[in-house]
Amino acid sequence: SDGFPTDVVESERGFVKDSLEAEINNTRVYAATRLKEIMCRERENFPTLKYLLKEIDSVTPASLMTHYASLISSSPMSVFYIGAESSDSIANKLRLAFCDFGGACTFAFSALKPSKRTEFSFVSEDMPVNQGKLSMGFRTGTCLGVGDYPAAIMLNEILGAESLDCE
């Protein structure tokens, strides 16, 4: 087979388009999504809602299969493990499970490193809504277990927000 089944791709395309349009129509979700887009705009290939809606029709069963094979063989993977087993043992199990898909099959267990940026951005978008939404994003430069992490978690709780890592 040179692609996923056409009927499945067409059905999923409709589902994805409906989901993306529903995100745009839900002002709370849209505001949070736009904030992520704005804060991660320097990141190469960060997909925006408008870009995804525009590009979804160009996906074919064959191009989807090609992309899927590429993701499986070359995309970085994040693994979170809590337990008594050694990281070498976990890495060996991951190699056995994923190396059949091709790709580098190297597993490095590195800690996150904090980064800080200090620029300020203000973006306002007009939409026909009954209630406006305010979204604020902060680059704290804090990672799990590093420096002021407890203070960053407290700030997150006080502001009632979600965390985002686009670095």
Structural commentary:
There is one protein chain. The chain is mainly alpha-helical and about 170 residues long. About 45% of the residues lie in helices and about 0% in strands. It is built from six helices and no strands. It has helices at about 5-25, 25-40, 50-55, 60-75, 85-100, 150-160. The protein is flat, with a radius of gyration of 20 Å. It starts with 5 loop residues before the first helix and ends in an 8-residue tail after the last helix. The mean pLDDT is about 75.
Compact summary:
The chain is mainly alpha-helical and 167 residues long.
List the helices and strands and how they pair.
Layout: H1 6-25, H2 27-39, H3 49-55, H4 61-74, H5 87-98, H6 149-159
Which segments are poorly predicted (pLDDT under 50) over 5 or more consecutive residues? none
> What do the pLDDT scores average to?
77
Number of beta strands: 0
How many individual helices? 6
Percentage of residues assigned to helices = 40-55%
Class by alpha and beta content = mainly alpha
**What are the secondary-structure elements, in order, as H or E?**
HHHHHH
Characterize the largest beta sheet: strand count, sense, and whether it forms a barrel.
none
- Globally, the shape reads flat
Percent strand equals: under 5%
What Rg, in angstroms, do the CA atoms define?
Answer: 20 Å
